[in-house]
Design the sequence.
């Protein structure tokens, strides 16, 4: 059972990990589903816009093309990254120095990626521990609410709170609470959903989904931004695959992006 703060039980964590570590749905199956023909097309939102990430790269994977389009249209886009993703390569056998080194690398990668999308504001980092975001949701909520108020944001984008990754779900819940407190509209973007779900999957609220078509320029900027996350694209060690192998990355370089409203 989830606690009042949304923490996951050990059983829920194991079930979610099994879904994410499974073989996954191939991108050809999603192409066959023809989502842009089945889901409503959304107009480019008005700003300012705040984009929330649980880890460096979530914002680009889920919404990077639209971020590039927004910046190109002169709309102010702000980002907040709740953890530094220092656990993406395992715990480093408890090596705190290795985790700190990876955290610093991922911050640099994010800065370079955002530069590829356009002249964006520097991201706000909260430094919440990676893989423990569900135990720090109050801190995350306060940080998101503060940025929404400071920027006068009209729209907030955050990871979908049904994504099965505990950090993504916690980020989504924190964003929802922050948006309620500030009167800001919330849209959510899936990340791992494309891996574990299938077209017409009943666990996905398709009736609330919509697509944002990407121009070739916006998609090109997104691809360039994703290429900056080398720590996630390269093998993590001998015999250890990357976090984002080509078959996973394929879900995120489509000619459109999907949000849940």
Sequence:
């Amino acid at each position: 059972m989830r606690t009042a703060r949304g923490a996951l039980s050990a059983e829920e964590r194991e079930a979610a990990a099994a879904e994410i570590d499974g073989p996954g749905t191939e991108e050809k199956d999603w192409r066959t589903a023809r989502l842009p023909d089945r889901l409503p097309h959304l107009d480019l939102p008005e700003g300012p816009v705040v984009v929330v990430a649980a880890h460096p790269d979530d914002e680009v994977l889920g919404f990077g093309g639209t971020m590039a389009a927004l910046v190109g249209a002169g709309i102010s886009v702000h980002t907040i990254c709740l953890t530094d993703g220092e656990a993406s390569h395992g715990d480093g056998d408890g090596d705190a120095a290795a985790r700190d080194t990876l955290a610093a690398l991922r911050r640099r990668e994010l800065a370079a990626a955002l530069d590829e999308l356009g002249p964006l504001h520097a991201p706000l980092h909260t430094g919440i521990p990676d893989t423990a975001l569900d135990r720090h949701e109050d801190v995350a909520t306060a940080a998101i609410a503060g940025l929404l108020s400071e920027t006068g944001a009209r729209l907030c984008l955050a990871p979908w709170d049904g994504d099965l990754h505990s950090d993504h779900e916690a980020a989504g819940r924190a964003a929802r609470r922050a948006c309620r407190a500030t009167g800001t509209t919330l849209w959510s973007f899936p990340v791992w959903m494309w891996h574990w779900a299938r077209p017409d999957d009943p666990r996905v609220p398709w009736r609330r989904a919509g697509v944002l078509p990407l121009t070739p320029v916006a998609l090109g900027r997104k691809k360039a931004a994703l290429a900056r996350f080398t720590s996630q694209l390269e093998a993590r060690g001998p015999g250890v695959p990357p976090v984002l192998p080509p078959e996973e990355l394929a879900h995120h370089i489509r000619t459109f992006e999907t949000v849940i409203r």
About this structure: Confidence is low (pLDDT under 50) at residues 1-6. Residues 96-117 form the longest helix (22 residues). The two ends are 26 Å apart (CA to CA). The CA atoms of residues 150 and 251 lie 33 Å apart.
